[in-house]
Amino acid sequence: MKFVVQSLIIFLLISCNSSNTSNSNDRQTTESPSDSLMHEILRQHDVGMAKMSKISEARNRIQQALDSIAKLPTDLQKKSEQYRMQLDSTFNWLTFADRHMETWMNEFNMDSLKNNKDEQVKYFESEKTKISQVTSEMIGSLKKADSLLTKK
User: Fold this and answer.
1) Per-residue DSSP letters for 105-143?
2) What is the pTM of this model?
């Protein structure tokens, strides 16, 4: 009897799992172009948002390094000038990437052109390009900051 019950449970689990897979595949194939673009936009947004705190941390670390350089004797400040300029430039890139994300979030309208699907798809394609660029800027500026801050 135990064997029959166990077999029945296994059969039900397998059949439930395969029907869930089938339903998820059906949803993916019936998703509209605007829905698909919206999901990609939101995925890119989430990637960027995950970097926001890291950008803030990197800016703080760079500012601390700049403050430390400013406290050095003049001759050592002069020797550190190239590094200070790189830190300053990277700080500006981090700030730009952060502000670019904030600007994009303020300007993005997910309900835009909701009654005109063709125009909505064009809008979403444009926004997907924008948010991809913002995310790339964020990742690039963080890589630059990491490479500068790990220099000795």
Assistant:
1) HHH--TTTTTT-HHHHHHHHHHHHHHHHHHHHHHHHHHH
2) 0.72
3-state secondary structure of 91: helix
CA neighbor of 113 nearest in space, from 101, 125, 131? 125
* DSSP result, the chain: -HHHHHHHHHHHHHHHHHHHHHHHHHHHHH--HHHHHHHHHHHHHHHHHHHHHHHHHHHHHHHHHHHHHHTS-HHHHHHTHHHHHHHHHHHHHHHHHHHHHHHHHHH--TTTTTT-HHHHHHHHHHHHHHHHHHHHHHHHHHHHHHHHHT--
Residue 95, C-beta contacts closer than 8 angstroms, at least 6 positions apart: 59
- pLDDT tens string, the chain, 152 residues long: the values are 554 444 445 544 555 544 444 454 544 557 788 889 989 999 999 999 999 999 999 999 999 999 999 999 999 989 999 999 999 999 999 999 999 999 999 999 888 777 788 888 999 999 999 999 999 999 999 999 999 988 65
